[in-house]
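Standup notes, structure subgroup. Blocker cleared on the zinc ion input:
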Amino acid sequence: MISGHSKRETQAYSVIKEDILLIHQDSMETMNFNSCNCYLIKLDEKDYAIIDPGCSRRKLNITLKNNNINYQNIKYIYITHGHSDHIALLDLLYKKNPNIEILIHEQDKKYVEDSNEYYQMLFNIPLMEKETKYKDFINAINYYTISNSNQVIKNSFKLIFDVWNIKDRKVNDTFKDGDVLPGDLKIIHAPGHTPGMCMLLRERDNILFSSDIHLSKTGAYISGNAGNVYQLKKSINAVITMVEEGTVKMILSGHGKNPITTDLKRRLLTFLETLTYKENQLIELLQAHGSMNLNDITKETFKLYLKRFKKYLTNPDFMETIVIAEASDMMTNLNSLKELERLNKIKQISINNHNSWIIT
Ligand SMILES: [Zn+2]
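Run returned:
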């Protein structure tokens, strides 16, 4: 094992059960978006389904090779929600097997099929022309940040742009709450992180594929202007109820170390608390500073709850990237606090020809 790397980063896959493999993500240091836990489910003697193909491309290949699985054996792709890290290998899988069936919840379908819907959802930028050029995309991001995007950041966002800038990507079908997919996987709609986020429950052995209710230290978060803090709290509480009732005994989540089999309720409560913690931090920051712009608020709050990534906090490129990615998430948090009348004012202003916000 290479020192400084966790087992999860070097190992290609883990055997969760005889019919469930977890394929690992790329190292965080690559700063790409193949950063999701991907699950391969055996359906019968030859067929498989894959949940969230956002793992490392190299590790997917090793996993298939070591287990004598061809791309043609993968019949279905189940996407828990339309974020780039959960579909990074979607187009590769489709190319290798055009008969593959891609399924997602109706409300997240547009984020996978339409890049502009995706950019708008994640970065809170206005809908752009069809077939957006990368230059326009970067300009649009700057619409709400005063950051001077440098090359590292641009490379990083080029990746997200490339994942989406694919014409005519289509999902084959949509699912809804209560549907049961091949593999005995029951759909549980869990909105909040995105409107159409779904978890998959295998009732026969109490396994929940929990997507971005992932229980890792980074905490719960919503995505841009499509997220909803209060829906997310409700969805996390629904998982807590399933744990209390004994319906869920193992969680297989979209991020972090898995499987999770112990201390489920406490870990879910801790995860839920991160949302309240973030809101309180925001209020405290604004009380201490009087008013702040969105970039500074995002940076400061992120520093507070992202202790896990300590080594990155000193890396200005990383921080700038985070600010761009997190600012619209922060905006949604701020807007919900405003609705609750815990904030007075959110005002859009212009600094150096870039739009920013002053919040008091
Ligand atoms: Zn996500």
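Discussed briefly. The radius of gyration is 20 Å.
Next: hand off to the docking folks.
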